[in-house]
Amino acid sequence: xxxxxxxxxxxxxxxxxxxxxDGGARLSPVEIAYETYGTLNADGSNAILICHALTGDHxxxxxxxxxxxxxxxxxxxxxxxxxxxxRHFIICxxxxxxxxxxxGPASKDPGGAPYAMRFPVITIRDMVRAQAMLxxxxxxxxxxxxxxxxxxxMQVLEWAxxxxxxxxxxxxxxxxxxxxxxxxxxxxxxxxxxxADPQWRGGDYxxxxxxxxxxLAVARMAAHITYLSEAGLTEKFGRRLQKRDAKSFGFDxxxxxxxxxxxxxxSFVDRFDANSYLYITRAxxxxxxxxxxxxxxxxxxxxxxxxxxxxxxxxxWLYPTSESRAVVHALNAAGAAVSxxxxxxxxxxxxxxxxxxxxxxxxxxxxxxxx
Amino acid sequence: xxxxxxxxxxxNNVASGSRVLDIGCGDGELMAVLRDAKGCDARGIEIDGxxxxxxxxxxxxxxxxxxxxxxxxxxxxxxxxxxLSQTLQxxxxxxxxxxxxxxxxxxxxxxxxxxxxxxxRWSLMWSGRMPVxxxxxxxxxxxxxxxxxxxxxxxAFVAERGITVENAWFLSGDRRRGAAAANLxxxxxxxxxxx
Lengths: 371, 195
Known about the structure:
The structure holds 2 protein chains of 2 kinds.
Chain A: E1 11-15, E2 19-20, E3 26-27, E4 30-37, E5 47-51, E6 89-93, H1 124-137, E7 143-149, H2 151-162, E8 167-173, H3 181-196, H4 213-227, H5 230-236, H6 256-269, H7 274-286, E9 307-313, H8 321-333, E10 337-343, H9 357-369
Parallel strand pairs in A: 5-6, 5-7, 7-8, 8-9, 9-10
Antiparallel strand pairs in A: 1-4, 2-3, 4-6
Helix pairs in contact in A: 1-2, 3-4, 3-7, 4-6
Chain B: H1 5-13, E1 19-23, H2 29-38, E2 41-46, H3 49-57, E3 61-64, H4 67-70, E4 79-85, H5 94-104, E5 105-113, H6 118-127, H7 151-160, E6 164-172, E7 175-177, H8 182-185, E8 188-194
Parallel strand pairs in B: 1-2, 1-4, 2-3, 4-5
Antiparallel strand pairs in B: 5-8, 6-7, 6-8
């Protein structure tokens, strides 16, 4: 690896901006936390940008500095994987609005106080614009590929629509070109749980460190259900009781599923900021790529030279196959080169992060064909 | 790698560098030949997920879809050729599929098993049983062929619709048969159609 300080693990850059946001505000400066892996080749043609999901971070294939856990997508990124530092120059940045290193509501405003709810409401396109600023900063013109699942997939679609000449291949996994009423509904439950927590206090909880953790944990619990399939839950937990032989006739976590969800909620609040959760879920709810292009999704991809690979999972009811198909139809109408497959997996939406060998085969073949 | 005989005929008769949509492309064997040997821009549709994965893994643009429901989303005149090999007889609405083929592509290759092939007739005539042959290898209760047809049926069908037959090839195994007695002697047929 070069000794260029822009490249490597756990980087942070403060870009002067200003970044003009969809909501009308201008953000300056723009802090972006990111990591790079591998070496940019001489003609700069092997760069792959990976976009993370709602609560993800830039530690895509490196050990997380706080939790000590391996990167969140080591099944896809690493030596011998479809996205391989030996072959690719890999970039992953923390999204705008997050709390894991990039500018977000927990960041300090120009006056030195946390933005909290004074942080401007952002969109998926704003996140992508910030990533484009980072890509510029790294000296890269065109990306070999932009790859992402879930909210990451939304960013990939937005990249292809906003910067068509800068994306040669796009990989969109378990995602959608818009948030459905049901998607918005689940997010609203989460946001209301946070805002109903008396510790939320209009978002100004940073000073005394008493964050609305109870509300955030409930938000995570509700969301976590949507990431799993019913069959998966039944198989993993069924109606089994948690470390007891009989029901307690109380409201303790009698069932394993209750205990599991509580654990998911509690461990989430250690690593995530409640206000960031509000902002990022809002950005996802606002996402409707067709709306940005006169109501017709095909217009978002008119004349595109980008190759697309769309993958859905048969048990994903959060972003079901029909949403991927709608994108595929629009891409066909636009004459784009598109591949699409619905893979079988018992894991629901979470499948894109889990061990699905077929997904690796598809992504590997698709990326290699574009190299 | 040798192509299935009907696919070999199609591969030999597609113009180099053309844009091709292969409907029911399987694991993409014809598309790969068209891409590698003829420099075609080949796209595919395939209903079976495992086949789609295999095709995408070899670098082809293939979408998982159904000829009966997904062709309507393709704009007019986007391809030089639309190919429907051994799939017409599995469509719910073969007539609509054929209309879509010639709407999306300027020309269409269509191949199908001939239900009037003499072995098929023999089987029906002498054993009174639904035929199981090389071209129709699956028993009646599990076959995907829901609209069996003969070469004569197809000729009449395209004539009624004013579709031009530019060329036709008739095969028994991998041997060519003449057009005259094809309805009796050919196990399968390949037609090249034009609007």
